[in-house]
Amino acid sequence: MKKIAQLMHKLLYDNKALMVFSVILSIIIWLVVTISLSPIDTATIQDVPVTIDLANSVPAQFDLQIFGQSEFDVDVEVSGKRYLLSSVDADSVKIVAQTAYVDSAGKHTLSLKAIKVNESDEFEIVSLSQDYVEVFFDVYMEQDFPVEAKLNIKDELVEEGYIAGEAVVSAETVMISGPQTEVASISKVYAEMNIDKPLSETQTQTAQVNAYNDSGVSLHYLSYNYGNSDITITLPVYYVVSKPASVSFKNAPLDYLDSPLRYTVNPEELTAGIAGADEENIPETISVMTVDFSQLTPGSNRFKVFSDEIPSVFPVEAATEFEVVVYVEGCDKKTLGVPIGNISFINAPEGYEVKEIIKSVGNAVTVGPKDSLAGVTASDIYAVVDLTNADVSSPTQEFSAKLSVRNSTDCWVSGDYTVTVAH
Protein backbone atom coordinates (compact mmCIF):
# COMPACT_ATOMS: atom_id res chain seq x y z
CA MET A 1 0.00 0.00 0.00
CA LYS A 2 2.84 2.29 0.78
CA LYS A 3 4.37 1.71 -2.67
CA ILE A 4 1.02 2.37 -4.38
CA ALA A 5 0.59 5.55 -2.38
CA GLN A 6 4.07 6.68 -3.37
CA LEU A 7 3.35 5.95 -7.03
CA MET A 8 0.08 7.90 -6.95
CA HIS A 9 1.80 10.77 -5.23
CA LYS A 10 4.50 10.77 -7.92
CA LEU A 11 1.92 10.73 -10.75
CA LEU A 12 -0.15 13.48 -9.23
CA TYR A 13 2.83 15.73 -8.80
CA ASP A 14 4.48 14.79 -12.14
CA ASN A 15 3.27 17.39 -14.62
CA LYS A 16 4.14 15.32 -17.72
CA ALA A 17 2.43 12.19 -16.43
CA LEU A 18 -0.56 14.20 -15.35
CA MET A 19 -0.84 15.74 -18.84
CA VAL A 20 -0.82 12.33 -20.55
CA PHE A 21 -3.39 10.97 -18.13
CA SER A 22 -5.64 13.97 -18.74
CA VAL A 23 -5.51 13.53 -22.51
CA ILE A 24 -6.40 9.84 -22.29
CA LEU A 25 -9.24 10.53 -19.90
CA SER A 26 -10.59 13.26 -22.18
CA ILE A 27 -10.63 10.93 -25.15
CA ILE A 28 -12.47 8.24 -23.20
CA ILE A 29 -15.07 10.74 -21.99
CA TRP A 30 -15.51 12.10 -25.58
CA LEU A 31 -16.03 8.61 -27.00
CA VAL A 32 -18.59 7.74 -24.31
CA VAL A 33 -20.51 10.95 -24.86
CA THR A 34 -20.33 10.62 -28.67
CA ILE A 35 -21.61 7.06 -28.69
CA SER A 36 -24.28 7.46 -26.08
CA LEU A 37 -25.46 10.92 -26.99
CA SER A 38 -24.73 11.00 -30.80
CA PRO A 39 -27.55 12.77 -32.67
CA ILE A 40 -29.69 10.94 -35.23
CA ASP A 41 -28.87 12.00 -38.79
CA THR A 42 -29.91 11.09 -42.35
CA ALA A 43 -27.90 10.20 -45.43
CA THR A 44 -28.61 9.27 -49.08
CA ILE A 45 -27.13 6.16 -50.64
CA GLN A 46 -27.02 6.68 -54.40
CA ASP A 47 -27.43 4.18 -57.24
CA VAL A 48 -28.56 1.13 -55.33
CA PRO A 49 -29.34 -1.59 -57.94
CA VAL A 50 -32.85 -3.06 -58.11
CA THR A 51 -33.07 -6.86 -57.96
CA ILE A 52 -35.69 -8.52 -60.19
CA ASP A 53 -35.46 -12.23 -59.43
CA LEU A 54 -37.61 -14.36 -61.75
CA ALA A 55 -36.49 -17.72 -60.40
CA ASN A 56 -39.51 -19.57 -58.99
CA SER A 57 -41.59 -16.42 -59.55
CA VAL A 58 -45.14 -15.93 -60.83
CA PRO A 59 -43.89 -14.63 -64.24
CA ALA A 60 -41.72 -17.73 -64.61
CA GLN A 61 -44.75 -19.94 -64.16
CA PHE A 62 -46.29 -18.26 -67.23
CA ASP A 63 -43.01 -18.44 -69.22
CA LEU A 64 -42.75 -14.66 -69.06
CA GLN A 65 -39.41 -12.96 -69.56
CA ILE A 66 -38.25 -9.37 -69.27
CA PHE A 67 -37.68 -7.45 -72.51
CA GLY A 68 -36.23 -4.00 -72.82
CA GLN A 69 -34.83 -2.30 -69.73
CA SER A 70 -34.19 -4.72 -66.90
CA GLU A 71 -31.57 -2.87 -64.83
CA PHE A 72 -32.59 -0.01 -62.55
CA ASP A 73 -30.92 2.06 -59.81
CA VAL A 74 -32.60 4.06 -57.05
CA ASP A 75 -31.38 6.36 -54.29
CA VAL A 76 -32.15 5.31 -50.71
CA GLU A 77 -32.47 7.69 -47.75
CA VAL A 78 -31.44 6.15 -44.41
CA SER A 79 -31.27 7.43 -40.83
CA GLY A 80 -29.16 6.50 -37.82
CA LYS A 81 -26.54 7.73 -35.47
CA ARG A 82 -24.15 10.02 -37.27
CA TYR A 83 -21.00 8.05 -36.47
CA LEU A 84 -22.57 4.89 -37.94
CA LEU A 85 -23.92 6.33 -41.19
CA SER A 86 -20.46 6.73 -42.69
CA SER A 87 -20.20 2.95 -43.04
CA VAL A 88 -23.61 2.50 -44.72
CA ASP A 89 -23.34 2.08 -48.51
CA ALA A 90 -25.07 0.40 -51.48
CA ASP A 91 -24.01 -3.02 -50.21
CA SER A 92 -25.90 -2.41 -46.97
CA VAL A 93 -29.30 -2.19 -48.66
CA LYS A 94 -31.17 -4.50 -51.06
CA ILE A 95 -33.98 -3.21 -53.29
CA VAL A 96 -36.37 -5.93 -54.49
CA ALA A 97 -38.99 -5.47 -57.24
CA GLN A 98 -42.25 -7.24 -56.44
CA THR A 99 -43.38 -9.56 -59.28
CA ALA A 100 -46.15 -11.49 -57.50
CA TYR A 101 -48.91 -9.92 -59.62
CA VAL A 102 -47.27 -10.33 -63.02
CA ASP A 103 -49.28 -13.06 -64.77
CA SER A 104 -49.71 -11.68 -68.30
CA ALA A 105 -47.75 -10.09 -71.13
CA GLY A 106 -47.33 -6.33 -71.24
CA LYS A 107 -45.84 -3.45 -69.29
CA HIS A 108 -46.18 -3.89 -65.52
CA THR A 109 -45.55 -1.51 -62.64
CA LEU A 110 -43.43 -3.27 -60.01
CA SER A 111 -43.44 -1.95 -56.44
CA LEU A 112 -40.03 -1.65 -54.81
CA LYS A 113 -39.23 -2.92 -51.33
CA ALA A 114 -36.06 -1.94 -49.47
CA ILE A 115 -34.54 -4.15 -46.82
CA LYS A 116 -31.31 -4.15 -44.84
CA VAL A 117 -28.83 -6.78 -45.95
CA ASN A 118 -27.91 -7.34 -42.28
CA GLU A 119 -30.83 -6.97 -39.89
CA SER A 120 -28.44 -6.15 -37.06
CA ASP A 121 -27.19 -2.98 -38.75
CA GLU A 122 -28.17 0.06 -36.66
CA PHE A 123 -29.82 2.26 -39.27
CA GLU A 124 -33.30 2.66 -40.64
CA ILE A 125 -34.55 2.96 -44.23
CA VAL A 126 -36.53 6.18 -44.57
CA SER A 127 -37.52 6.39 -48.26
CA LEU A 128 -36.64 5.61 -51.87
CA SER A 129 -36.16 8.06 -54.73
CA GLN A 130 -38.86 6.09 -56.56
CA ASP A 131 -41.28 3.51 -55.28
CA TYR A 132 -41.80 1.52 -58.49
CA VAL A 133 -40.32 0.66 -61.89
CA GLU A 134 -42.03 -0.21 -65.18
CA VAL A 135 -40.94 -3.47 -66.81
CA PHE A 136 -42.14 -5.16 -70.01
CA PHE A 137 -42.91 -8.89 -69.75
CA ASP A 138 -43.78 -11.35 -72.51
CA VAL A 139 -43.25 -14.88 -73.80
CA TYR A 140 -40.12 -15.37 -75.91
CA MET A 141 -40.65 -15.99 -79.63
CA GLU A 142 -38.44 -16.24 -82.71
CA GLN A 143 -39.30 -16.36 -86.41
CA ASP A 144 -37.73 -15.87 -89.85
CA PHE A 145 -38.91 -12.90 -91.93
CA PRO A 146 -38.07 -11.76 -95.46
CA VAL A 147 -36.00 -8.57 -95.41
CA GLU A 148 -36.18 -5.73 -97.93
CA ALA A 149 -33.82 -2.84 -98.61
CA LYS A 150 -34.87 0.67 -97.65
CA LEU A 151 -32.89 3.82 -98.51
CA ASN A 152 -33.10 6.86 -96.26
CA ILE A 153 -31.94 9.67 -98.56
CA LYS A 154 -30.99 13.01 -97.02
CA ASP A 155 -30.58 15.02 -100.23
CA GLU A 156 -29.94 13.48 -103.67
CA LEU A 157 -29.21 9.80 -104.19
CA VAL A 158 -26.43 10.13 -106.79
CA GLU A 159 -24.29 12.85 -108.32
CA GLU A 160 -25.17 14.31 -111.72
CA GLY A 161 -24.31 11.93 -114.54
CA TYR A 162 -24.76 8.80 -112.41
CA ILE A 163 -27.62 6.40 -111.83
CA ALA A 164 -28.25 3.92 -109.02
CA GLY A 165 -29.32 0.34 -109.47
CA GLU A 166 -31.40 -1.77 -107.14
CA ALA A 167 -30.10 -2.11 -103.60
CA VAL A 168 -29.05 -5.67 -102.72
CA VAL A 169 -29.38 -7.07 -99.20
CA SER A 170 -26.79 -9.67 -98.12
CA ALA A 171 -29.51 -11.95 -96.71
CA GLU A 172 -32.96 -12.85 -97.99
CA THR A 173 -34.34 -13.51 -94.51
CA VAL A 174 -33.53 -12.45 -90.97
CA MET A 175 -34.20 -14.28 -87.71
CA ILE A 176 -36.08 -11.99 -85.32
CA SER A 177 -36.48 -12.87 -81.66
CA GLY A 178 -38.17 -11.10 -78.79
CA PRO A 179 -41.56 -10.70 -77.08
CA GLN A 180 -44.33 -12.71 -78.66
CA THR A 181 -46.75 -9.77 -78.99
CA GLU A 182 -44.14 -7.74 -80.88
CA VAL A 183 -42.90 -10.55 -83.14
CA ALA A 184 -46.48 -11.50 -84.03
CA SER A 185 -47.17 -7.88 -85.04
CA ILE A 186 -44.38 -7.71 -87.61
CA SER A 187 -45.60 -6.79 -91.08
CA LYS A 188 -42.40 -5.57 -92.78
CA VAL A 189 -38.70 -5.92 -92.06
CA TYR A 190 -36.32 -3.46 -93.65
CA ALA A 191 -32.55 -3.37 -93.88
CA GLU A 192 -32.06 0.39 -93.89
CA MET A 193 -29.22 2.34 -95.47
CA ASN A 194 -28.64 6.04 -94.80
CA ILE A 195 -27.47 8.16 -97.75
CA ASP A 196 -26.07 11.41 -96.35
CA LYS A 197 -24.67 12.82 -99.60
CA PRO A 198 -24.98 12.15 -103.35
CA LEU A 199 -23.01 9.09 -104.45
CA SER A 200 -20.61 8.61 -107.35
CA GLU A 201 -19.58 5.02 -106.66
CA THR A 202 -21.06 1.78 -105.41
CA GLN A 203 -21.62 1.70 -101.65
CA THR A 204 -21.76 -1.20 -99.19
CA GLN A 205 -22.86 -0.49 -95.63
CA THR A 206 -23.84 -2.43 -92.55
CA ALA A 207 -27.61 -2.13 -92.48
CA GLN A 208 -29.79 -1.06 -89.59
CA VAL A 209 -32.52 -3.72 -89.43
CA ASN A 210 -35.94 -2.56 -88.22
CA ALA A 211 -39.31 -4.25 -88.02
CA TYR A 212 -42.65 -2.47 -88.49
CA ASN A 213 -46.30 -3.34 -87.93
CA ASP A 214 -49.21 -2.80 -90.35
CA SER A 215 -49.42 0.88 -89.35
CA GLY A 216 -45.76 1.50 -90.10
CA VAL A 217 -44.84 1.83 -86.45
CA SER A 218 -41.39 0.57 -85.46
CA LEU A 219 -41.51 -2.35 -83.02
CA HIS A 220 -39.39 -2.65 -79.89
CA TYR A 221 -37.48 -5.11 -77.73
CA LEU A 222 -36.41 -7.18 -80.75
CA SER A 223 -33.11 -8.88 -81.54
CA TYR A 224 -31.95 -9.61 -85.07
CA ASN A 225 -29.91 -12.65 -86.17
CA TYR A 226 -28.94 -13.40 -82.57
CA GLY A 227 -26.14 -10.86 -82.94
CA ASN A 228 -24.47 -12.99 -85.61
CA SER A 229 -23.01 -11.68 -88.86
CA ASP A 230 -24.18 -8.21 -89.82
CA ILE A 231 -26.61 -7.74 -92.67
CA THR A 232 -25.23 -5.41 -95.33
CA ILE A 233 -26.72 -3.44 -98.20
CA THR A 234 -24.91 -2.89 -101.48
CA LEU A 235 -26.15 -0.06 -103.66
CA PRO A 236 -24.62 -0.24 -107.17
CA VAL A 237 -23.87 3.14 -108.73
CA TYR A 238 -23.24 3.51 -112.48
CA TYR A 239 -21.86 6.22 -114.72
CA VAL A 240 -24.30 6.92 -117.58
CA VAL A 241 -22.94 6.83 -121.16
CA SER A 242 -24.30 6.40 -124.68
CA LYS A 243 -21.99 4.15 -126.70
CA PRO A 244 -22.08 1.77 -129.69
CA ALA A 245 -23.21 -1.75 -128.81
CA SER A 246 -20.56 -4.45 -129.23
CA VAL A 247 -20.06 -8.21 -128.75
CA SER A 248 -17.40 -10.11 -126.84
CA PHE A 249 -16.20 -13.66 -127.56
CA LYS A 250 -14.89 -16.50 -125.40
CA ASN A 251 -13.21 -19.84 -126.07
CA ALA A 252 -11.99 -18.45 -129.39
CA PRO A 253 -9.27 -20.30 -131.31
CA LEU A 254 -5.94 -18.52 -131.29
CA ASP A 255 -6.24 -17.02 -134.79
CA TYR A 256 -9.50 -15.24 -133.87
CA LEU A 257 -8.09 -13.37 -130.87
CA ASP A 258 -6.61 -10.66 -133.08
CA SER A 259 -9.11 -11.09 -135.93
CA PRO A 260 -12.59 -11.35 -134.41
CA LEU A 261 -15.55 -12.54 -136.39
CA ARG A 262 -17.73 -9.95 -138.10
CA TYR A 263 -21.01 -9.18 -136.34
CA THR A 264 -23.86 -6.68 -136.26
CA VAL A 265 -25.94 -5.40 -133.34
CA ASN A 266 -29.38 -3.84 -133.65
CA PRO A 267 -30.02 -1.27 -132.15
CA GLU A 268 -26.48 -0.07 -132.74
CA GLU A 269 -26.27 2.14 -129.63
CA LEU A 270 -27.05 1.69 -125.96
CA THR A 271 -27.53 4.30 -123.25
CA ALA A 272 -26.82 2.76 -119.87
CA GLY A 273 -24.98 3.05 -116.59
CA ILE A 274 -21.60 1.34 -116.60
CA ALA A 275 -20.12 -0.12 -113.40
CA GLY A 276 -16.68 1.23 -112.54
CA ALA A 277 -16.74 3.98 -115.17
CA ASP A 278 -16.30 7.72 -114.55
CA GLU A 279 -15.54 10.88 -116.50
CA GLU A 280 -11.93 9.79 -117.08
CA ASN A 281 -12.63 6.10 -117.67
CA ILE A 282 -15.28 5.75 -120.36
CA PRO A 283 -15.43 2.60 -122.54
CA GLU A 284 -15.49 3.05 -126.31
CA THR A 285 -18.28 0.48 -126.70
CA ILE A 286 -20.74 -1.41 -124.50
CA SER A 287 -20.66 -5.18 -124.85
CA VAL A 288 -24.24 -6.44 -124.90
CA MET A 289 -23.34 -10.14 -124.78
CA THR A 290 -20.50 -12.66 -124.77
CA VAL A 291 -20.71 -15.29 -127.51
CA ASP A 292 -19.08 -18.68 -126.93
CA PHE A 293 -17.48 -20.15 -130.05
CA SER A 294 -19.20 -23.43 -129.18
CA GLN A 295 -22.46 -21.68 -130.18
CA LEU A 296 -21.24 -20.84 -133.68
CA THR A 297 -21.67 -22.73 -136.96
CA PRO A 298 -20.88 -21.63 -140.52
CA GLY A 299 -23.14 -18.84 -141.79
CA SER A 300 -25.24 -16.34 -139.84
CA ASN A 301 -25.68 -17.03 -136.13
CA ARG A 302 -28.50 -15.02 -134.54
CA PHE A 303 -28.88 -14.22 -130.84
CA LYS A 304 -31.22 -12.02 -128.86
CA VAL A 305 -30.57 -10.34 -125.54
CA PHE A 306 -32.47 -7.78 -123.48
CA SER A 307 -30.68 -4.75 -122.04
CA ASP A 308 -31.61 -5.70 -118.47
CA GLU A 309 -29.75 -9.03 -118.94
CA ILE A 310 -26.39 -7.41 -119.71
CA PRO A 311 -23.87 -7.92 -116.85
CA SER A 312 -22.43 -4.81 -115.10
CA VAL A 313 -24.79 -2.59 -117.10
CA PHE A 314 -27.83 -0.72 -115.82
CA PRO A 315 -30.16 0.33 -118.66
CA VAL A 316 -31.53 3.84 -118.33
CA GLU A 317 -34.59 3.19 -120.48
CA ALA A 318 -37.10 0.34 -120.46
CA ALA A 319 -35.74 -3.08 -121.36
CA THR A 320 -34.61 -3.08 -125.00
CA GLU A 321 -34.18 -6.20 -127.12
CA PHE A 322 -30.91 -6.39 -129.04
CA GLU A 323 -30.47 -8.68 -132.02
CA VAL A 324 -26.92 -9.91 -132.51
CA VAL A 325 -25.81 -11.59 -135.74
CA VAL A 326 -22.37 -13.23 -135.84
CA TYR A 327 -21.10 -14.16 -139.30
CA VAL A 328 -18.88 -17.25 -139.63
CA GLU A 329 -17.55 -16.77 -143.13
CA GLY A 330 -15.25 -18.95 -145.22
CA CYS A 331 -15.72 -21.91 -142.90
CA ASP A 332 -17.17 -25.39 -143.24
CA LYS A 333 -18.06 -28.14 -140.77
CA LYS A 334 -17.73 -31.89 -140.47
CA THR A 335 -18.70 -34.52 -137.92
CA LEU A 336 -16.04 -36.57 -136.14
CA GLY A 337 -16.35 -39.29 -133.53
CA VAL A 338 -14.48 -38.61 -130.27
CA PRO A 339 -12.26 -41.50 -129.14
CA ILE A 340 -12.92 -42.65 -125.57
CA GLY A 341 -9.21 -42.34 -124.89
CA ASN A 342 -9.46 -38.59 -125.58
CA ILE A 343 -11.92 -38.06 -122.73
CA SER A 344 -10.39 -36.84 -119.45
CA PHE A 345 -11.93 -36.04 -116.05
CA ILE A 346 -11.03 -33.26 -113.62
CA ASN A 347 -12.03 -32.08 -110.12
CA ALA A 348 -13.37 -35.41 -108.89
CA PRO A 349 -14.67 -35.19 -105.30
CA GLU A 350 -13.06 -37.33 -102.62
CA GLY A 351 -14.37 -40.88 -102.88
CA TYR A 352 -15.55 -40.48 -106.47
CA GLU A 353 -13.84 -42.56 -109.15
CA VAL A 354 -15.00 -43.03 -112.74
CA LYS A 355 -15.10 -46.78 -113.39
CA GLU A 356 -16.85 -46.86 -116.73
CA ILE A 357 -18.06 -44.53 -119.49
CA ILE A 358 -21.60 -45.68 -120.16
CA LYS A 359 -22.39 -43.14 -122.87
CA SER A 360 -19.59 -41.38 -124.70
CA VAL A 361 -19.60 -37.94 -126.31
CA GLY A 362 -20.63 -39.28 -129.67
CA ASN A 363 -20.05 -37.29 -132.83
CA ALA A 364 -18.61 -33.78 -132.60
CA VAL A 365 -19.44 -31.02 -135.09
CA THR A 366 -16.10 -29.48 -135.98
CA VAL A 367 -15.98 -26.02 -137.61
CA GLY A 368 -13.15 -24.15 -139.32
CA PRO A 369 -11.71 -22.85 -142.60
CA LYS A 370 -11.97 -25.53 -145.29
CA ASP A 371 -8.23 -26.00 -145.70
CA SER A 372 -7.60 -26.29 -141.97
CA LEU A 373 -10.66 -28.48 -141.37
CA ALA A 374 -9.44 -30.98 -143.96
CA GLY A 375 -6.46 -31.77 -141.79
CA VAL A 376 -8.46 -32.32 -138.57
CA THR A 377 -9.16 -35.96 -137.62
CA ALA A 378 -11.03 -37.64 -134.77
CA SER A 379 -7.77 -38.07 -132.88
CA ASP A 380 -7.52 -34.24 -132.65
CA ILE A 381 -10.82 -33.89 -130.76
CA TYR A 382 -10.50 -33.94 -126.98
CA ALA A 383 -13.16 -33.75 -124.27
CA VAL A 384 -12.73 -32.56 -120.68
CA VAL A 385 -15.39 -33.49 -118.10
CA ASP A 386 -15.62 -31.46 -114.87
CA LEU A 387 -16.74 -33.68 -111.93
CA THR A 388 -17.05 -30.88 -109.38
CA ASN A 389 -20.79 -31.48 -108.96
CA ALA A 390 -20.57 -35.27 -108.92
CA ASP A 391 -23.01 -37.02 -106.59
CA VAL A 392 -21.03 -39.68 -104.70
CA SER A 393 -24.25 -41.52 -103.81
CA SER A 394 -25.41 -41.86 -107.43
CA PRO A 395 -24.11 -44.94 -109.31
CA THR A 396 -24.48 -43.24 -112.71
CA GLN A 397 -24.51 -39.58 -113.64
CA GLU A 398 -24.47 -37.39 -116.72
CA PHE A 399 -21.95 -34.53 -117.03
CA SER A 400 -21.33 -31.74 -119.52
CA ALA A 401 -18.21 -32.15 -121.64
CA LYS A 402 -16.10 -29.33 -123.03
CA LEU A 403 -14.66 -30.20 -126.44
CA SER A 404 -11.68 -28.64 -128.21
CA VAL A 405 -9.51 -29.22 -131.27
CA ARG A 406 -5.88 -29.93 -130.56
CA ASN A 407 -3.12 -28.97 -132.99
CA SER A 408 -5.27 -26.29 -134.65
CA THR A 409 -5.38 -22.51 -134.22
CA ASP A 410 -8.52 -21.79 -136.24
CA CYS A 411 -10.90 -24.75 -135.74
CA TRP A 412 -13.37 -25.40 -132.94
CA VAL A 413 -16.17 -27.75 -131.87
CA SER A 414 -19.73 -26.43 -132.06
CA GLY A 415 -22.60 -27.68 -129.89
CA ASP A 416 -23.29 -29.04 -126.42
CA TYR A 417 -22.09 -32.49 -125.38
CA THR A 418 -22.44 -34.83 -122.42
CA VAL A 419 -20.86 -37.96 -121.04
CA THR A 420 -22.61 -40.52 -118.79
CA VAL A 421 -20.35 -42.41 -116.38
CA ALA A 422 -20.56 -45.02 -113.64
CA HIS A 423 -18.44 -44.91 -110.50
Summarize the structure.
This protein is mostly beta strands and 423 residues long.
Please give a handful of descriptors for the protein shown.
423 residues; mainly beta; RNA Polymerase Alpha Subunit, Chain A, domain 2; 5-stranded mixed β-sheet; 31 strands
Topology:
Elements: H1 2-12, H2 15-37, E1 40-51, H3 58-61, E2 64-67, E3 73-81, H4 82-85, E4 93-97, E5 106-116, E6 124-128, E7 132-146, E8 148-153, E9 162-164, E10 168-169, E11 173-179, H5 180-183, E12 188-195, E13 203-206, E14 208-212, E15 223-224, E16 232-235, E17 237-250, H6 255-258, E18 262-266, E19 269-275, E20 286-292, E21 299-306, E22 313-315, E23 321-328, E24 331-337, E25 343-346, E26 356-359, E27 363-369, H7 370-374, E28 381-386, E29 396-405, E30 412-414, E31 417-422
Parallel strand pairs: 1-4, 8-12, 17-20, 25-28
Antiparallel strand pairs: 1-3, 2-7, 3-6, 4-5, 5-7, 7-11, 9-17, 10-16, 11-15, 12-14, 13-16, 17-19, 18-23, 19-22, 21-23, 24-27, 26-31, 27-30, 28-29, 29-31
